[in-house]
Amino acid sequence: MLNSSHHTTRNEALGFDAGTSSEFIETVRPDDGRLETLWVWLFIAAVLAIGAIGISVRTETHVHVPSVELNPVEQQLLTELSIAIQEIEFVTGDVGDWPDIDQLIMAQIPPFTHQSQTWRAIEKGCYLLVSAVGMHGHFMLDLNEEARILFHESPIPMISECHDLSHWHRLDTLK
Amino acid sequence: MKWLVVLISVLLSTSSAWAKPLVVGITLHPYYSYVSQIVGDKAEILPLISSGFNPHSYELQPSDLKRLLEMDVLVLNGIGHDEFASHALEGLDLPNLHVVYANKDLPLLSSGRGSNTYNPHTFVSIDAAIRQIYTITAELGRLDPENAAYFQANALRYARELRGLKNRYQASIMDLDLTGVRIASTHNAYGYFLQEFGIGVDTVIEPAHGVEPNASQLQNTIDRIKAANIQVLFTELNMENRYVDVIEQATGIGIFHFSHMTHGDYDAELVMREMEHNLQTLVLALTKAAGG
Protein backbone atom coordinates (compact mmCIF):
# COMPACT_ATOMS: atom_id res chain seq x y z
CA MET A 1 0.00 0.00 0.00
CA LEU A 2 2.74 2.25 0.93
CA ASN A 3 4.62 1.28 -2.29
CA SER A 4 1.59 1.90 -4.48
CA SER A 5 1.09 5.28 -2.99
CA HIS A 6 4.73 6.06 -3.43
CA HIS A 7 4.66 4.81 -7.08
CA THR A 8 1.66 7.03 -7.89
CA THR A 9 3.23 9.99 -6.33
CA ARG A 10 6.43 9.45 -8.24
CA ASN A 11 4.64 9.10 -11.61
CA GLU A 12 2.75 12.19 -10.93
CA ALA A 13 5.92 13.95 -10.10
CA LEU A 14 7.37 12.88 -13.44
CA GLY A 15 4.31 14.08 -15.31
CA PHE A 16 2.76 10.69 -16.21
CA ASP A 17 -0.90 10.09 -16.01
CA ALA A 18 -1.37 7.09 -13.68
CA GLY A 19 -4.72 6.22 -15.22
CA THR A 20 -3.52 5.85 -18.88
CA SER A 21 0.08 4.26 -18.57
CA SER A 22 -0.52 1.44 -16.11
CA GLU A 23 1.11 -1.47 -18.36
CA PHE A 24 4.35 0.19 -19.56
CA ILE A 25 7.41 -1.88 -18.52
CA GLU A 26 10.96 -1.19 -19.62
CA THR A 27 13.68 -3.76 -18.79
CA VAL A 28 17.02 -2.19 -18.04
CA ARG A 29 20.12 -4.44 -17.70
CA PRO A 30 22.40 -3.35 -14.92
CA ASP A 31 25.75 -2.05 -16.18
CA ASP A 32 27.70 -3.80 -13.41
CA GLY A 33 30.21 -5.91 -15.49
CA ARG A 34 28.54 -9.26 -14.98
CA LEU A 35 29.00 -10.20 -18.71
CA GLU A 36 32.66 -9.31 -18.63
CA THR A 37 33.34 -12.47 -16.62
CA LEU A 38 31.66 -14.55 -19.32
CA TRP A 39 33.71 -12.92 -22.08
CA VAL A 40 36.95 -13.40 -20.18
CA TRP A 41 36.22 -17.12 -19.68
CA LEU A 42 35.32 -17.50 -23.34
CA PHE A 43 38.58 -15.76 -24.34
CA ILE A 44 40.65 -18.03 -22.07
CA ALA A 45 38.89 -21.11 -23.46
CA ALA A 46 39.58 -19.95 -27.03
CA VAL A 47 43.28 -19.36 -26.27
CA LEU A 48 43.58 -22.81 -24.65
CA ALA A 49 41.77 -24.47 -27.57
CA ILE A 50 44.05 -22.80 -30.13
CA GLY A 51 47.09 -23.82 -28.06
CA ALA A 52 45.91 -27.43 -27.84
CA ILE A 53 45.32 -27.57 -31.59
CA GLY A 54 48.78 -26.05 -32.22
CA ILE A 55 50.49 -28.55 -29.94
CA SER A 56 48.72 -31.52 -31.51
CA VAL A 57 49.62 -30.31 -35.01
CA ARG A 58 53.31 -29.79 -34.14
CA THR A 59 53.75 -32.96 -32.07
CA GLU A 60 56.21 -35.44 -33.55
CA THR A 61 55.67 -39.12 -33.06
CA HIS A 62 58.22 -40.41 -30.59
CA VAL A 63 59.65 -43.75 -31.57
CA HIS A 64 60.68 -45.66 -28.48
CA VAL A 65 64.22 -46.88 -28.96
CA PRO A 66 65.03 -49.76 -26.64
CA SER A 67 68.08 -49.07 -24.51
CA VAL A 68 70.75 -51.72 -24.47
CA GLU A 69 73.58 -51.62 -21.98
CA LEU A 70 76.77 -52.95 -23.53
CA ASN A 71 79.91 -53.64 -21.58
CA PRO A 72 83.28 -52.49 -23.05
CA VAL A 73 83.92 -55.88 -24.69
CA GLU A 74 80.52 -55.80 -26.38
CA GLN A 75 80.96 -52.16 -27.36
CA GLN A 76 84.24 -53.06 -29.04
CA LEU A 77 82.59 -55.98 -30.87
CA LEU A 78 79.88 -53.61 -32.09
CA THR A 79 82.57 -51.32 -33.54
CA GLU A 80 84.28 -54.26 -35.24
CA LEU A 81 81.02 -55.49 -36.76
CA SER A 82 80.23 -52.00 -38.08
CA ILE A 83 83.66 -52.07 -39.78
CA ALA A 84 83.09 -55.62 -41.06
CA ILE A 85 79.86 -54.59 -42.83
CA GLN A 86 81.75 -52.11 -45.00
CA GLU A 87 84.86 -54.24 -45.42
CA ILE A 88 82.87 -57.27 -46.63
CA GLU A 89 81.05 -54.97 -49.06
CA PHE A 90 84.37 -53.64 -50.39
CA VAL A 91 85.89 -57.13 -50.67
CA THR A 92 82.89 -58.83 -52.30
CA GLY A 93 81.80 -55.88 -54.43
CA ASP A 94 78.31 -55.84 -52.90
CA VAL A 95 76.98 -58.53 -55.24
CA GLY A 96 75.10 -60.51 -52.59
CA ASP A 97 77.37 -63.54 -52.88
CA TRP A 98 78.32 -63.35 -49.25
CA PRO A 99 81.40 -65.18 -47.94
CA ASP A 100 81.20 -68.02 -45.43
CA ILE A 101 83.05 -67.95 -42.09
CA ASP A 102 86.20 -69.58 -43.48
CA GLN A 103 86.41 -66.97 -46.24
CA LEU A 104 85.97 -64.16 -43.70
CA ILE A 105 88.82 -65.59 -41.64
CA MET A 106 90.94 -65.97 -44.78
CA ALA A 107 90.24 -62.31 -45.61
CA GLN A 108 91.39 -61.41 -42.05
CA ILE A 109 88.23 -59.48 -41.21
CA PRO A 110 87.66 -58.98 -37.45
CA PRO A 111 85.85 -60.08 -35.37
CA PHE A 112 85.71 -63.39 -37.26
CA THR A 113 89.47 -63.80 -36.80
CA HIS A 114 89.34 -63.63 -32.98
CA GLN A 115 90.26 -66.93 -31.40
CA SER A 116 88.13 -66.14 -28.33
CA GLN A 117 84.95 -66.08 -30.45
CA THR A 118 83.10 -68.74 -32.43
CA TRP A 119 80.92 -67.62 -35.34
CA ARG A 120 78.47 -69.69 -37.37
CA ALA A 121 76.83 -68.79 -40.69
CA ILE A 122 73.11 -69.48 -40.30
CA GLU A 123 72.48 -68.75 -43.94
CA LYS A 124 74.29 -66.81 -46.66
CA GLY A 125 75.25 -63.37 -45.30
CA CYS A 126 73.87 -64.04 -41.80
CA TYR A 127 76.37 -64.74 -39.05
CA LEU A 128 75.71 -65.65 -35.40
CA LEU A 129 78.21 -65.35 -32.56
CA VAL A 130 77.86 -68.73 -30.90
CA SER A 131 80.29 -68.32 -28.05
CA ALA A 132 82.58 -65.62 -26.71
CA VAL A 133 84.35 -64.55 -23.55
CA GLY A 134 83.17 -61.52 -21.55
CA MET A 135 79.71 -61.05 -23.08
CA HIS A 136 76.26 -61.35 -21.53
CA GLY A 137 74.32 -61.46 -24.81
CA HIS A 138 74.36 -62.77 -28.36
CA PHE A 139 75.35 -60.89 -31.50
CA MET A 140 74.28 -61.44 -35.07
CA LEU A 141 75.35 -59.79 -38.31
CA ASP A 142 72.82 -59.91 -41.15
CA LEU A 143 74.02 -58.57 -44.51
CA ASN A 144 70.95 -59.52 -46.52
CA GLU A 145 68.88 -56.59 -47.85
CA GLU A 146 69.81 -53.85 -45.37
CA ALA A 147 72.93 -54.70 -43.35
CA ARG A 148 72.16 -54.81 -39.64
CA ILE A 149 73.79 -55.73 -36.34
CA LEU A 150 71.49 -57.46 -33.85
CA PHE A 151 71.79 -58.22 -30.13
CA HIS A 152 69.86 -60.57 -27.86
CA GLU A 153 70.40 -60.26 -24.11
CA SER A 154 69.02 -63.57 -22.84
CA PRO A 155 69.80 -67.13 -23.97
CA ILE A 156 68.48 -67.84 -27.45
CA PRO A 157 66.83 -70.95 -28.87
CA MET A 158 68.46 -72.74 -31.78
CA ILE A 159 68.21 -70.48 -34.83
CA SER A 160 68.03 -71.89 -38.33
CA GLU A 161 67.11 -68.80 -40.36
CA CYS A 162 67.51 -65.02 -40.18
CA HIS A 163 64.03 -63.76 -41.06
CA ASP A 164 62.12 -63.72 -37.79
CA LEU A 165 64.37 -61.71 -35.47
CA SER A 166 61.68 -59.52 -33.93
CA HIS A 167 62.93 -60.15 -30.38
CA TRP A 168 66.42 -58.99 -31.19
CA HIS A 169 67.63 -55.41 -30.60
CA ARG A 170 69.02 -53.71 -33.66
CA LEU A 171 72.28 -52.08 -32.52
CA ASP A 172 73.45 -50.28 -35.64
CA THR A 173 70.61 -47.76 -35.24
CA LEU A 174 71.41 -47.04 -31.59
CA LYS A 175 73.59 -44.07 -30.75
CA MET B 1 85.69 -38.50 -91.98
CA LYS B 2 87.87 -41.26 -90.63
CA TRP B 3 90.14 -38.81 -88.84
CA LEU B 4 87.10 -37.26 -87.15
CA VAL B 5 86.02 -40.64 -85.73
CA VAL B 6 89.55 -41.26 -84.48
CA LEU B 7 89.69 -37.81 -82.87
CA ILE B 8 86.34 -38.32 -81.09
CA SER B 9 87.34 -41.76 -79.81
CA VAL B 10 90.65 -40.38 -78.53
CA LEU B 11 88.82 -37.53 -76.80
CA LEU B 12 86.34 -39.93 -75.18
CA SER B 13 89.06 -42.29 -74.03
CA THR B 14 91.00 -39.51 -72.37
CA SER B 15 88.01 -37.66 -70.92
CA SER B 16 88.51 -39.26 -67.54
CA ALA B 17 92.10 -38.07 -67.48
CA TRP B 18 90.88 -34.55 -68.18
CA ALA B 19 88.08 -34.68 -65.60
CA LYS B 20 88.71 -32.22 -62.82
CA PRO B 21 89.77 -34.14 -59.68
CA LEU B 22 87.67 -33.70 -56.55
CA VAL B 23 88.79 -31.04 -54.12
CA VAL B 24 88.35 -32.66 -50.71
CA GLY B 25 88.39 -30.40 -47.66
CA ILE B 26 89.34 -31.56 -44.18
CA THR B 27 89.15 -29.89 -40.78
CA LEU B 28 91.56 -31.86 -38.60
CA HIS B 29 94.98 -33.47 -39.04
CA PRO B 30 93.90 -37.14 -38.86
CA TYR B 31 91.38 -36.58 -41.66
CA TYR B 32 94.20 -35.24 -43.84
CA SER B 33 96.02 -38.55 -43.34
CA TYR B 34 92.89 -40.64 -44.00
CA VAL B 35 91.92 -38.79 -47.17
CA SER B 36 95.54 -38.71 -48.46
CA GLN B 37 95.81 -42.47 -48.10
CA ILE B 38 92.41 -43.07 -49.72
CA VAL B 39 92.61 -40.77 -52.76
CA GLY B 40 96.34 -40.99 -53.59
CA ASP B 41 96.86 -38.67 -56.55
CA LYS B 42 93.22 -38.87 -57.72
CA ALA B 43 92.01 -35.87 -55.71
CA GLU B 44 93.27 -32.63 -54.22
CA ILE B 45 93.19 -32.22 -50.43
CA LEU B 46 92.54 -28.79 -49.00
CA PRO B 47 92.71 -28.21 -45.23
CA LEU B 48 90.03 -25.75 -44.16
CA ILE B 49 92.31 -24.06 -41.62
CA SER B 50 96.06 -23.66 -41.49
CA SER B 51 97.97 -25.98 -39.21
CA GLY B 52 98.99 -24.64 -35.82
CA PHE B 53 95.60 -23.60 -34.48
CA ASN B 54 93.72 -25.20 -31.61
CA PRO B 55 90.55 -26.63 -33.18
CA HIS B 56 88.72 -26.50 -29.85
CA SER B 57 88.64 -22.71 -29.79
CA TYR B 58 89.02 -21.74 -33.46
CA GLU B 59 86.78 -19.21 -35.22
CA LEU B 60 86.60 -19.36 -39.01
CA GLN B 61 88.43 -16.52 -40.80
CA PRO B 62 87.60 -14.93 -44.21
CA SER B 63 90.53 -16.76 -45.82
CA ASP B 64 89.09 -20.06 -44.54
CA LEU B 65 85.74 -19.22 -46.12
CA LYS B 66 87.51 -18.68 -49.46
CA ARG B 67 88.95 -22.20 -49.20
CA LEU B 68 85.52 -23.54 -48.30
CA LEU B 69 84.16 -22.19 -51.59
CA GLU B 70 86.84 -24.07 -53.53
CA MET B 71 85.88 -27.48 -52.10
CA ASP B 72 83.67 -30.14 -53.68
CA VAL B 73 83.62 -32.20 -50.49
CA LEU B 74 84.26 -31.42 -46.82
CA VAL B 75 85.06 -34.28 -44.45
CA LEU B 76 83.91 -33.49 -40.91
CA ASN B 77 84.42 -35.12 -37.54
CA GLY B 78 80.92 -33.71 -37.01
CA ILE B 79 80.40 -34.70 -33.36
CA GLY B 80 82.13 -31.86 -31.56
CA HIS B 81 85.77 -31.57 -32.54
CA ASP B 82 85.38 -29.26 -35.55
CA GLU B 83 82.50 -27.08 -34.47
CA PHE B 84 84.18 -24.06 -36.09
CA ALA B 85 83.26 -25.68 -39.43
CA SER B 86 79.86 -27.07 -38.40
CA HIS B 87 78.73 -23.66 -37.15
CA ALA B 88 79.96 -21.94 -40.32
CA LEU B 89 78.09 -24.42 -42.53
CA GLU B 90 74.85 -23.75 -40.66
CA GLY B 91 74.94 -20.11 -41.76
CA LEU B 92 76.15 -20.59 -45.34
CA ASP B 93 74.31 -21.61 -48.46
CA LEU B 94 76.73 -23.90 -50.32
CA PRO B 95 74.59 -26.12 -52.56
CA ASN B 96 77.60 -27.56 -54.41
CA LEU B 97 79.47 -28.64 -51.28
CA HIS B 98 79.00 -32.26 -50.25
CA VAL B 99 79.59 -32.80 -46.53
CA VAL B 100 80.87 -36.19 -45.35
CA TYR B 101 80.17 -36.94 -41.70
CA ALA B 102 83.00 -39.37 -40.99
CA ASN B 103 81.49 -40.69 -37.75
CA LYS B 104 78.00 -41.38 -39.02
CA ASP B 105 78.46 -45.18 -39.03
CA LEU B 106 80.52 -45.52 -35.85
CA PRO B 107 79.02 -46.68 -32.52
CA LEU B 108 79.84 -43.66 -30.38
CA LEU B 109 80.74 -43.28 -26.73
CA SER B 110 78.90 -40.75 -24.59
CA SER B 111 80.76 -37.57 -23.72
CA GLY B 112 79.46 -37.91 -20.18
CA ARG B 113 77.70 -34.53 -20.51
CA GLY B 114 74.16 -35.57 -21.41
CA SER B 115 72.55 -38.16 -23.62
CA ASN B 116 72.89 -36.34 -26.95
CA THR B 117 76.58 -35.46 -26.87
CA TYR B 118 79.30 -37.86 -27.85
CA ASN B 119 83.00 -38.19 -27.20
CA PRO B 120 84.45 -36.67 -30.41
CA HIS B 121 87.97 -38.17 -30.12
CA THR B 122 87.24 -41.03 -32.50
CA PHE B 123 90.46 -40.30 -34.42
CA VAL B 124 92.63 -41.28 -31.42
CA SER B 125 91.71 -44.93 -31.99
CA ILE B 126 92.62 -47.49 -34.62
CA ASP B 127 89.28 -49.24 -35.06
CA ALA B 128 87.31 -46.00 -34.94
CA ALA B 129 89.75 -44.59 -37.50
CA ILE B 130 89.18 -47.58 -39.81
CA ARG B 131 85.40 -47.17 -39.53
CA GLN B 132 85.78 -43.50 -40.54
CA ILE B 133 88.19 -44.33 -43.38
CA TYR B 134 85.57 -46.73 -44.83
CA THR B 135 82.76 -44.18 -44.48
CA ILE B 136 84.85 -41.52 -46.25
CA THR B 137 85.84 -44.02 -48.95
CA ALA B 138 82.24 -45.03 -49.65
CA GLU B 139 81.13 -41.38 -49.89
CA LEU B 140 84.02 -40.35 -52.14
CA GLY B 141 83.35 -43.39 -54.33
CA ARG B 142 79.76 -42.26 -54.81
CA LEU B 143 80.94 -38.78 -55.81
CA ASP B 144 83.68 -40.09 -58.11
CA PRO B 145 82.51 -43.50 -59.39
CA GLU B 146 85.39 -43.81 -61.87
CA ASN B 147 87.87 -43.91 -59.00
CA ALA B 148 85.68 -45.77 -56.48
CA ALA B 149 87.52 -49.10 -56.89
CA TYR B 150 90.88 -47.31 -56.55
CA PHE B 151 89.70 -45.59 -53.36
CA GLN B 152 88.43 -48.90 -51.92
CA ALA B 153 91.69 -50.72 -52.65
CA ASN B 154 93.64 -47.94 -50.94
CA ALA B 155 91.28 -47.92 -47.96
CA LEU B 156 91.59 -51.69 -47.50
CA ARG B 157 95.38 -51.51 -47.70
CA TYR B 158 95.53 -48.61 -45.21
CA ALA B 159 93.09 -50.29 -42.81
CA ARG B 160 95.17 -53.47 -42.85
CA GLU B 161 98.35 -51.51 -42.15
CA LEU B 162 96.67 -49.86 -39.16
CA ARG B 163 95.26 -53.19 -37.98
CA GLY B 164 98.65 -54.84 -38.36
CA LEU B 165 100.18 -52.09 -36.21
CA LYS B 166 97.56 -52.66 -33.53
CA ASN B 167 98.00 -56.45 -33.58
CA ARG B 168 101.75 -56.12 -33.03
CA TYR B 169 101.27 -54.18 -29.78
CA GLN B 170 98.12 -56.00 -28.66
CA ALA B 171 100.11 -59.21 -28.33
CA SER B 172 102.33 -57.49 -25.71
CA ILE B 173 99.32 -56.20 -23.78
CA MET B 174 97.53 -59.57 -23.74
CA ASP B 175 100.45 -61.09 -21.84
CA LEU B 176 99.96 -58.64 -18.94
CA ASP B 177 97.78 -59.14 -15.88
CA LEU B 178 95.81 -55.88 -15.77
CA THR B 179 93.25 -56.85 -13.14
CA GLY B 180 94.58 -54.38 -10.55
CA VAL B 181 95.57 -51.59 -12.93
CA ARG B 182 93.61 -48.31 -12.57
CA ILE B 183 93.87 -45.48 -15.09
CA ALA B 184 93.20 -41.75 -15.14
CA SER B 185 93.43 -39.29 -18.03
CA THR B 186 93.67 -35.52 -18.09
CA HIS B 187 90.91 -35.13 -20.63
CA ASN B 188 88.39 -37.46 -22.16
CA ALA B 189 90.31 -38.17 -25.38
CA TYR B 190 91.37 -41.77 -25.03
CA GLY B 191 88.13 -43.65 -24.39
CA TYR B 192 87.92 -45.17 -27.88
CA PHE B 193 91.64 -46.01 -27.96
CA LEU B 194 91.64 -47.78 -24.59
CA GLN B 195 88.32 -49.51 -25.29
CA GLU B 196 89.81 -51.46 -28.18
CA PHE B 197 92.24 -53.04 -25.74
CA GLY B 198 89.51 -53.77 -23.18
CA ILE B 199 90.73 -51.01 -20.83
CA GLY B 200 88.50 -48.48 -19.08
CA VAL B 201 89.34 -45.01 -17.74
CA ASP B 202 88.64 -44.73 -14.02
CA THR B 203 88.73 -40.94 -13.77
CA VAL B 204 89.03 -37.88 -16.05
CA ILE B 205 90.65 -34.85 -14.46
CA GLU B 206 90.00 -31.79 -16.64
CA PRO B 207 86.50 -30.28 -16.47
CA ALA B 208 86.89 -29.59 -20.25
CA HIS B 209 89.70 -29.85 -22.76
CA GLY B 210 92.47 -27.39 -21.84
CA VAL B 211 90.59 -26.18 -18.77
CA GLU B 212 92.71 -26.72 -15.71
CA PRO B 213 90.95 -27.89 -12.55
CA ASN B 214 90.75 -25.30 -9.77
CA ALA B 215 92.43 -25.87 -6.39
CA SER B 216 89.54 -27.72 -4.78
CA GLN B 217 88.97 -29.87 -7.90
CA LEU B 218 92.68 -30.69 -7.95
CA GLN B 219 92.61 -31.69 -4.27
CA ASN B 220 89.56 -33.88 -4.92
CA THR B 221 91.37 -35.49 -7.85
CA ILE B 222 94.44 -36.23 -5.74
CA ASP B 223 92.22 -37.74 -3.04
CA ARG B 224 90.37 -39.81 -5.65
CA ILE B 225 93.59 -41.10 -7.21
CA LYS B 226 94.91 -42.14 -3.80
CA ALA B 227 91.63 -43.74 -2.72
CA ALA B 228 91.18 -45.70 -5.97
CA ASN B 229 94.85 -46.65 -6.11
CA ILE B 230 95.20 -45.30 -9.66
CA GLN B 231 98.69 -46.02 -11.00
CA VAL B 232 98.69 -44.46 -14.48
CA LEU B 233 97.81 -40.97 -15.71
CA PHE B 234 97.60 -40.42 -19.47
CA THR B 235 98.02 -36.83 -20.53
CA GLU B 236 98.44 -35.00 -23.78
CA LEU B 237 101.68 -34.58 -25.68
CA ASN B 238 102.36 -30.98 -26.78
CA MET B 239 100.26 -29.50 -23.98
CA GLU B 240 101.85 -28.12 -20.86
CA ASN B 241 99.78 -29.01 -17.82
CA ARG B 242 101.36 -27.62 -14.66
CA TYR B 243 98.81 -29.35 -12.47
CA VAL B 244 100.00 -32.74 -13.76
CA ASP B 245 103.32 -32.21 -11.96
CA VAL B 246 101.43 -31.41 -8.76
CA ILE B 247 99.45 -34.65 -9.08
CA GLU B 248 102.62 -36.61 -9.78
CA GLN B 249 104.35 -35.19 -6.67
CA ALA B 250 101.31 -35.68 -4.44
CA THR B 251 100.44 -39.22 -5.52
CA GLY B 252 103.52 -40.79 -7.11
CA ILE B 253 101.38 -41.74 -10.11
CA GLY B 254 103.09 -42.62 -13.40
CA ILE B 255 102.60 -39.93 -16.08
CA PHE B 256 102.50 -40.97 -19.76
CA HIS B 257 101.88 -38.81 -22.82
CA PHE B 258 99.58 -39.69 -25.72
CA SER B 259 99.45 -37.80 -28.98
CA HIS B 260 96.16 -36.02 -29.61
CA MET B 261 97.02 -36.04 -33.36
CA THR B 262 95.90 -32.46 -33.95
CA HIS B 263 99.29 -30.72 -33.81
CA GLY B 264 102.03 -30.02 -36.33
CA ASP B 265 101.90 -29.95 -40.11
CA TYR B 266 99.34 -31.79 -42.20
CA ASP B 267 100.95 -35.08 -43.14
CA ALA B 268 99.72 -38.27 -44.83
CA GLU B 269 101.83 -40.37 -42.42
CA LEU B 270 100.84 -38.54 -39.23
CA VAL B 271 98.19 -41.04 -38.10
CA MET B 272 100.39 -44.09 -38.64
CA ARG B 273 103.37 -42.44 -36.92
CA GLU B 274 101.52 -41.00 -33.92
CA MET B 275 99.33 -44.05 -33.51
CA GLU B 276 102.51 -46.10 -33.13
CA HIS B 277 103.78 -43.61 -30.54
CA ASN B 278 100.52 -44.04 -28.59
CA LEU B 279 100.73 -47.83 -28.79
CA GLN B 280 104.34 -47.81 -27.55
CA THR B 281 103.30 -45.49 -24.71
CA LEU B 282 100.36 -47.71 -23.80
CA VAL B 283 102.48 -50.86 -23.66
CA LEU B 284 105.13 -49.09 -21.58
CA ALA B 285 102.58 -47.66 -19.14
CA LEU B 286 100.68 -50.91 -18.68
CA THR B 287 103.85 -52.97 -18.35
CA LYS B 288 105.09 -50.69 -15.55
CA ALA B 289 101.68 -50.61 -13.84
CA ALA B 290 101.37 -54.39 -14.01
CA GLY B 291 104.78 -54.70 -12.39
CA GLY B 292 106.48 -56.02 -15.50
UniProtKB/TrEMBL annotation, chain A:
Pfam families: DUF6162. Keywords: Membrane, Transmembrane, Transmembrane helix. InterPro entries: DUF6162. The chain crosses the membrane at residues 38-57. The keyword Membrane applies. This is Uncharacterized protein. It comes from Nitrincola tibetensis.
UniProtKB/TrEMBL annotation, chain B:
PANTHER family: HIGH-AFFINITY ZINC UPTAKE SYSTEM PROTEIN ZNUA, HIGH-AFFINITY ZINC UPTAKE SYSTEM PROTEIN ZNUA-RELATED. Keywords: Ion transport, Signal, Transport, Zinc, Zinc transport. Belongs to the bacterial solute-binding protein 9 family. The lineage of its organism: Bacteria, Pseudomonadati, Pseudomonadota, Gammaproteobacteria, Oceanospirillales. This is High-affinity zinc uptake system protein ZnuA. GO terms for biological process: cell adhesion; zinc ion transport. Pfam families: ZnuA (PF01297). Residues 1-19 form the signal peptide. SUPFAM superfamilies: Helical backbone' metal receptor. One of its GO terms (molecular function) is metal ion binding. It comes from the Bacteria. InterPro entries: AdhesinB, Bact_metal-bind_prot9, Lipoprotein_PsaA-like, ZnuA-like.
